[in-house]
Amino acid sequence: MSTVAPGRRTGGRSRREPSKAPYYVFLVLLALFAVGPLVVLLFNSLKTNAEIGRNPLGPPLAPVFQNFPTAWAQGGFATTMVNSAILTLGTVVGVCIISGTAAYAMARLDLPGTDVVLLYLFVASALPFQLFLVPLFFLWSSLQLTNTLVGLIVIYWAIFSPFATLLLRSYLVALPRGFEDAARVDGATELQILLRVILPLSWPGFLTIALVSGLGAWNEFFFAVTFIQDDALKPVTTSFLAFQSNFSRDWGLTSAAGIIIILPVVALFLLLQRRFISGLTAGGLKG
User: Fold this and answer.
1) pTM for the full model?
2) 84: pLDDT strictly greater than 90
3) How far is CA 40 from CA 114, 129, 249, 253, 267, in A?
């Protein structure tokens, strides 16, 4: 019994494995497209305005590390970082509770009108929330929720919960019902099933919506600058406004501020990356 090595003739034809070079080229171009702007941002954070004008894309010739402490002080990051942390934490907790209970109800309880609710969530996820800015501002003003972190957190709940609910429901639908049926036989309530059965099995889905909503709340600018006027309550994205004058902008300080803003996000991703990927690949069932 003979074997034919790859690349040799078989039946008059040469069998060759397809080249993987185009895939590597595509991946390299994709990596450059993703990392390139961050590298340029890092370069510009170490330059003066004059050097940025002469050399906007290249590395700094004389690095100006003073941009970072100056940007930190001028942008008020000691205050805005704390405010954004509060906003992000409140948003993540609220979105996980709202979307978790809603997704469980739609995926497991077979409630009437589920298809209508799903259609509503699809529409709500597709519509730009800026359309509701004017009536929302008047409503928040009458409720005295403007210029408060709680009012902004509630807005973020409304923005991120529809997509989080759809994402989490699609994850819960794929989970088997055997554990839930066994818990019901043992007399567990629906809340106990959600907390003690569904939550441990679906924590990768909850981690995903927590990361998505948390990053969205950290990076959000439009509603933050509209509903927060007190400098002591402004989030980190509004710190960019501190480097703008009537006729110019200090791009060196702005780039340094951008690096300061994305550092916590990068650190959080690196911290949770292994657990996030291992949770997704492990699946819901464990022995």
Assistant:
1) 0.80
2) yes
3) 48, 32, 17, 14, 20
